[in-house]
């Protein structure tokens, strides 16, 4: 198995990165764009790898009535509701609060998990 080796540095206002002995140079603005895109893809890959844990945590939150979710992925949201409604463990530790809940089943206030909250930066006013 080969090991990848990555180095980063800056020279004369440009970002230099060396990947497996090959050097690449780019303006800092492009390096900034690249880092944002890489971080976004890394979070999506992490979500894929940790989907089962996200579903379990999200189901616990939904079953307890917490109004937000941990993912915007529709497949994870669907599986969350299945888990929240069907898990023997969750049904035992978080039983139905009121069978007459207006739009939900038991402790679940809605049939759909709200997606992950989004944080954004705003300029100070």
Notes on the protein architecture:
This protein has 125 residues and is α+β, with helices and mostly antiparallel strands. It has 2 domains: 42 residues, no CATH class; 65 residues, no CATH class. The protein contains 4 helices and 3 strands; from the N terminus they run E-E-E-H-H-H-H. Strands 1-2-3 form a 3-stranded antiparallel beta sheet. It is elongated, with a radius of gyration of 22 Å.
Please give the largest β-sheet.
3 strands, antiparallel
* Mean model confidence by pLDDT: 82
Low-confidence stretches: none
SSE order, one letter for each helix or strand: EEEHHHH
Strand order of the biggest β-sheet: 1-2-3
CA(first)-CA(last) distance: 54 Å
Q: Quote the beta fraction.
A: 5-15%
Q: Look at the helices and sheets and give the structural class.
A: alpha+beta
Instruction: Please state the overall shape, judged from the principal axes of the Cα atoms.
Output: elongated
**Integer tally of domains:** 2
- The count of strands amounts to 3
Figure out the total of helices: 4
Q: Please identify the oligomeric state.
A: single chain
Rg from C-alpha positions? 22 Å
Amount of helix:
40-55%
Short structural summary:
This protein is 43% helix and 14% strand. With 125 residues, it is α+β, with helices and mostly antiparallel strands.
